Amino acid sequence: MSIPLLFGLLALTLGVVGDETPEAQSPQSACASLQSLLGATIVQTPAAGSSFQTIVGTPLNLANNELTPSCVVIPQNTSHVSTAMKAIYKTKSRYAVLAGGHSAMKGWNAVRDGVLIYFRDMKAVSYDSRKDTITMQPGVRWGEAVNTLAPLGVAPVGGRAAHVGSGFLLGGGISFLSPSLGYGADLYKELDVVLVDGSVVTATANNKYSDLFRALKGGANRFGIVTRYELYPFHSGKQSDKTWFGGTITYPGSFVEDVLRATARYTKNVDDPNATIFVTLEHIVNAPANKIDTVVQANIFYHGKSLPPKIFGDFLSIPASNKSLSALSYADIVANTFPANDDHGSTYLYGASTRRGGDEKAFVDALNFNLNFTESLKRDLAWTALTFTPIPDSQIKAGRARGGNAIDAPLTGGYAVMQIMQTLPVGVVDVPPAVANGKKKLLSQIKPVPGLPLFINECDALQNVFATYGGYDFLKKTYKKYDPTRFNIGHTDGPIGL
Ligand SMILES: Cc1cc2nc3c(=O)[nH]c(=O)nc-3n(C[C@H](O)[C@H](O)[C@H](O)COP(=O)(O)OP(=O)(O)OC[C@H]3O[C@@H](n4cnc5c(N)ncnc54)[C@H](O)[C@@H]3O)c2cc1C
Predict the structure, then answer these.
(1) What would be an example GO MF term here (predicted)?
(2) DSSP H helical segments within 430-482, as ranges?
């Protein structure tokens, strides 16, 4: 008997869909039901699925490649997602949703012994000039969206890395365009959402699902599965319109403190929506030399003809080992900043913190804590990194002007979010206890500033990011309304705190 036929019979026997099934069943029963309903091309199993292994290997983080689902659903439309969620809900299966695969948190985009919904075949992106909106399916990555739309002179307010996917939006999403337009999610116009029980709703800022609409601006994977994003665009101009200036400056490790002090000052002083930066420092374990090498880079861009010295003077005057600065189109910036998706094969760990603008000491302390941490665990680590992104008041005001988001950050005159990252040596999946403990200590040393929201796209899974949001109470209330049985929290990994 063929596997699909076997599954089909199983599904009929179990009566999985359209029947009352109070007890949890095996994930195989959801897969069996789904295969009979959607067919073996859309629902693939380890035994019979030409794409199955490739899909399991899609998440960037090796720790997630190790989680093998019972089956993968590759929907082609919203109705397929709805069918999948109905079966998952009925059978009380574990599940996960995979878009661009860039979440570092274990289990947030992969599932062992459950159903994985992967948007590989829902990648359409288009622009309606009459409505002036972009419509995107969730499988598209930012580089693809930007390249498709550049000939039309528009771009989504999307990721800074071309290969990151649309899950970016559900965590808020910090774009190069954020200082002028807000978080990526602030640009939502309309969302199609499959709720946890499989029902489908369209949420907007003004209809009866306006609470859901707002919750999906920062609520991550907890509130439903978005199958269509309609977004207000950035009028970027075409690929040939080099209306930006900037690029990457690399500094020798000896100037890392100067760069961080400059970043602290920039965070406080710059509220020009045309300016956008992020600064990364890496501590790389140089095993043969038994030492840690420090590399620091400032990625600085201005929407204008040149880099105004008043804004970027500090970064331009620190002695650099390399400067790659030129006139650029918006599409160039997205294509060049993280050019390749070639970092598979390693386990990444993230953590989040915040820094008040102007607090140079706190920026430099973070550097020293990270260096000590890396030094003490150098046998177990390949490299570590701290990335600082200023959140100017202009970004928060732009979001508020579009109805606000769940993050609901305060106006402080500028603060920075920090990503704290560790990378294990290639091929190592399990986090050594010394690293796990050391990381806990590191996060307690690089303390977040009370009252400033952490950034969920860059957090540790044990950090209660939602509790740092201005909209925390709103999020809890909205979650209760849309998932009263707490199915999502019980059956998929994701942020804690609801
Ligand atoms: C190299 C790199 C660069 C990055 N740069 C940035 C940056 O500039 N700005 C920024 O904000 N973040 C950035 N990130 C973080 C990134 O945005 C988040 O990890 C984001 O969640 C990735 O989305 P994804 O679709 O690629 O990943 P996935 O792991 O596929 O999805 C992320 C999460 O969202 C859920 N999800 C995805 N799609 C849906 C959906 N349609 N409905 C419901 N749930 C869904 C997934 O289940 C998962 O929990 C970066 C990450 C990396 C690795």
Answers:
(1) oxidoreductase activity
(2) 433-445, 472-482
CA of 161 to the centre of ligand 1 (A): 11
| Contact (Cβ atoms closer than 8 angstroms) between residue 138 and residue 383 | no
Q: Considering 169, 203, 237, which residue would you say is the last residue of a domain?
A: 237
Q: What is the pLDDT of residue 476?
A: 98
Residues 436, 438, 442, 445, CA torsion sign? positive
How many Cβ atoms sit within 10 Å of the Cβ of residue 182?
Answer: 29
Region 290-310: what's the mean pLDDT? 96
| CB neighbour burial string for 154-163, b if at least 16 within 10 angstroms, e if fewer | bbbbbbbbbb
Q: Is beta strand 71-73 parallel, antiparallel or unpaired with respect to 322-328?
A: unpaired
Number of structural domains found in the chain:
3
Residue ranges in 407-456 assigned as alpha helix (H): 433-445
Is residue 17 one of the residues assigned to a domain? yes
Q: Are residues 453 and 349 in the same domain?
A: yes
- Indicate whether 388 and 299 sit together in one domain: yes
Residue 63 near residue 347 (C-beta atoms within 8 A)? yes
Fill in the amino acid letter for 127.
Y
List CB contacts of 231: < 8 A, sequence separation 6 or more: 133, 134, 135, 136, 156, 157, 187, 188, 189
Of 202, 237, 272, which marks where a domain is finished?
Answer: 237
What pLDDT score was predicted for residue 148? 97
Does 82 reside within a domain? Answer: yes
Residue closest via CA to ligand 1's atom 28 equals 101
Q: What is the pLDDT of residue 23?
A: 56
Pocket of ligand 1 (CB under 6 A): 60, 96-103, 108-109, 138, 159-161, 164-168, 170-171, 173-174, 221, 225-226, 338, 457, 494
